[in-house]
Amino acid sequence: MDKVIIADNLSLAYSDNETIINKANFSIDSGSFVFITGASGSGKSTLLKSLYGALKPIEGSLVVGGVELRGVSSSKLSFLRKHLGIVFQDYKLVKEWTIEKNIMLPLIINGYEKAVTQNQVDSLLKHVKLQHQIGKYPQELSGGEQQRVAMARALAHNPILILADEPTGNLDDYSSQLIWNLLEGANEQLKTTVIVVTHHIPENMTVRYKHYHIESGDIREVL
Amino acid sequence: MKSFKNHLSLVIALLSILFSLQVFTIVDRAIDAYKENLAQHYSLVVVAQKKVDIKKLQKSFSIIDNISELSPDSVIKKLNSGISKKNIELLKVTLPKFYKLKLKYYPSPVELKKLTESLLKRSAIQKVETFSKTHDTTYKLLVLFKTVVTLFAATVIIVTILLIFKELRIWQFKHNERMSIMGLFGAPVWLRSAVLFRLAIVDALIASGLAFGLFTYISSMPWVREQFSHIGIDIVVFDTMYDFLIMLGVSLSVSILLAIFIVLGHKEEV
Fold first, then answer.
1. What is the ipTM of this complex?
2. Domain residues of chain B, as ranges?
3. A188 CB-near residues (< 8 Å, 6+ apart)
4. Chain-centre distance of CA A122, in angstroms?
């Protein structure tokens, strides 16, 4: 099976004297669904940031979607990010844009035609059960609804890899279930690789998917 | 309303820069026209022992527009009684020659002093009357007026630029988040900055348009024309083509520069 992520002796740090991930080795198969867990401050979000190139490795190698991220150029990084779907814990929606425009963002960046973009946005809004909120701005929605918009944005351009950082962190059960269903749907139907960083894996998902745990700067698969 | 507010701050700042520039231009034009007017009514008088070669003298000084010899008839008329015709003819020959020198433009006191000195170096020329007291006062008044207006315009521009820099920080904060989010989804720099540049260009166009309307209105006001005609000048208060293009160029440059600063100052979120 193809590997979508290969980490070889990967070390990550925000400053020289504090290594957060230390010489980790792991790989993730294309089309898999992976959970990454760990205690607060263990480096889960740091690892996720490195996967979309917001934090460059200080040592070793990290290849995502065939792109080596150590010393990656900004044009190559842009190319990679165009094929990623990222869900952030704090949603990262553009406040001055309507929810439709927020969902459109990756489609605009990838140069989709206007008609295709509109169809895709309409269909995604139905999927995330927000079709009645058309025309609204993110701050007019609840946290759960905002995260559903962020989810729709991550799925909009059929990415090869979805990276989700605590996607259900502070959400109600309804929104959480909807998010999990969407992530599972993307993985099962579109064969999109999904990596979810979370504190808590839903009980019905613990057995089915791969699980990595971060502790003391090391990443180990939980068998 | 929110979108209007977004535009307002930069538009007002740009408008005040354009206003100061145009006021400075108008004053500059008015002073130039007034100097030209003064030059037309201003002349020097040169007294020479003997006839001077007018063409040769004019060629030697580029500032001289024309030279005319003043007739001694009026002087002789006063002495006319009791003097024979023969003696009058003799007097005509022995009287010094007077020449009126018209200049191409209104000279500065330094230029005038240099010209006087150069003229007096010629052996035939005995005296040069520059009417310097009147000349100096008028010239210094003009210079003072221009300096005051320049200082005023420069102060307004400096204060406005400081305000723009403050606005820049607000813009940086406002656009940084959107640019970072777009960057996280792989948007190239031009796409991330497109909104910013569009906003900057739109604001520059709005400010130039408003300034165009304002100065077209001012230049069409009879009161403004009257003020200039009172001091005997007629100037173009607002050249709809030339001045507008300069305004457009200035406002576009300032606002695009502002956008470039923001793009360069943008730091990607980690």
1. 0.89
2. 2-37+138-269, 43-126
3. none
4. 22
In a domain, A20, yes or no: no
Of residues A29, A28, A25, A23, the one with CA closest to residue A11? A23
Out of A92, A95, A108, closest to residue B184 by CB? A92
Distance, in angstroms, between A189 CA and closest chain B CA? 23
pLDDT, one tens digit for every residue, chain A (223 residues): 699 999 999 999 987 778 899 999 999 999 999 999 999 889 999 999 999 999 999 999 999 999 999 989 989 999 999 999 999 989 999 998 999 999 999 999 999 999 999 999 999 999 999 999 999 999 999 999 999 999 999 999 999 999 999 998 878 888 899 999 999 999 999 999 999 999 888 877 766 788 999 998 899 988 7
Q: Number of CB pairs < 8 Å for A and B?
A: 51
In angstroms and rounded to an integer, the radius of gyration of the C-alpha atoms of chain A is 17
For residue A110, give its domain range. 30-56+73-221
Threshold 0.80, pTM exceeds:
no
User: Which residues in chain B (169-208) have CB-CB distances under 8 A to chain A?
Assistant: 177-178, 180-188, 191
Q: What kind of fold does domain B43-126 have according to CATH? A: Alpha-Beta Plaits (3.30.70)
Q: How many domains does chain A have?
A: 1
Burial class (CB in 10 A: 0-12, 13-18, 19+), A160: buried
